[in-house]
Glycoside hydrolase family 16 protein (Thelephora ganbajun), 343 residues
Amino acid sequence: MQLLTLILIALLPVASLARSHHHLSRQHHGSKRHNVARDTQYKLQTKHQGQNFFDDWYFYTEDDPTHGNVKYESRENSQDLAYVQDDGTTVLKVDNKGYVPPGGKRRSVRITSKETYNGGLFIADFWHLASGPTLWPAFWTVGGHWPDQGEIDIIEYVNTGKVNQYTLHTGTGGECKLDPNAGARYRNKDGSQPKSYLGNTLGLQCKSSNGNNAGCAVDDSDGSVGSPFNMAGGGVFAMLWDETQISFWRFERNHIPQDIQDGNPDPETWGIPVAYWSDKGCDIANAFRDHSIIINISICGDWAGAAYDNDHQPGSCSDAVANATNYDFAQIKINHISIYQKA
Ligand SMILES: *[C@@H]1O[C@H](CO)[C@@H](O)[C@H](O)[C@H]1NC(C)=O
Ligand SMILES: *[C@@H]1O[C@H](CO)[C@@H](O)[C@H](O)[C@H]1NC(C)=O
C-alpha cells in the first residue's frame, strides 16, 4: 500500500458507487458436518496463535508511508496495544486513552511476519476487526520490492466501512489482469456454478504504471467487515495462492466449514469464492514473490483521510484524531492465522 494518493482518488468514486448499487446475497456453505474426514492435500506449515504470537513478527516503527496520523510503536512501547489475552486471543489496537492534539499522531501498531511465503493456503480467524471513524485497518501480504514483488490486500476498508476490498498490485514482475471471464473453477455443493466469483469487480488492471496504482480489486458484500462482522462474532478469511490462482473465501463465525475447524482445510468443498484471479489473466508465479504478512491499523492518511467525509462525521479527519472515543472499537482480535502448504 505504498500506493496511494492516486489510487484513492481513482478508486473511491467507483467504490462508493458500486457500494450503493450492488448488494450481493452471499450463499453460505459449510457448517455441514463431514462425518468421515478425508485427508486433504494441505498440511499445516505455521499457526500464529497464543502466548508466543509476537515472537514471529517484527514491529514496524517508521513513519506511515501513506501519511497517516499515526505513530507505529515498537514491541517494548506497545504493551498496551499489542498483547495476548489469557484465553489466547491476540489483540492489536489503537490507543483510545492518550491525549492527542487535533492533527497529531495517535499510537498504533503495525506488525510484519518474519516468515515469508511464495504461496499457500492462508486461514485467518478474527474475533473482531477495527471499526470507527478515521480508521484504515489492513491485513495484507507484500514482497520486499514494491510493486515488483506484488501486494495482496486480503482485508482492507476505511472508517466505518462495511465492505471488504480484495486487491492485487503488481509491477514489472509479470503481466497481471483480473479476468472476470476466466471461467468458473469452483462449484457450489449443489453442483451449481453461476459465476467464477461472487464479489463485485472494481478494477481489472493489477499493474502499477504511470502513477496509476489502483490495482485490480473486488468488493465483498455489505457486512463483510466492520460492525456487522464484529456483531456476528467475527469469522474466517481464507486465501488460496498458488501458481494457477489467487482465490478468497469468507465465512461468518456460524458458517465456518468443519474442515477448517478440524485443521484439515479443503477449498474444493467451499463453493464459489468471493474473488478469484486466474493465471489466465495473471502471471501469478512471477508477479507475487517472497511475501511477508502485514497487519496494521492506520489513521486518516491517503485513503481514510480522503474518504472521511463520506461518513458524515464532525470536523476533518485529522482533527478527529483528538477524539479518543473514536478508537473504542479500533481493535483487531485474532484467534489464529494459519498457513498450509500443499503436501
Ligand atoms: C499499512 O502500512 C503500509 C506501509 O506502511 C501503508 O502503505 C498502508 O497504508 C498502511 N495501512 C494501514 C491500514 O495502516
Ligand atoms: C467523538 O467520537 C464519538 C465516537 O465516534 C462521537 O460520538 C462524538 O460525537 C465525537 N465527539 C466530537 C466532539 O466530535
Q: What stands out?
A: The CA atoms of residues 192 and 325 lie 47 Å apart.
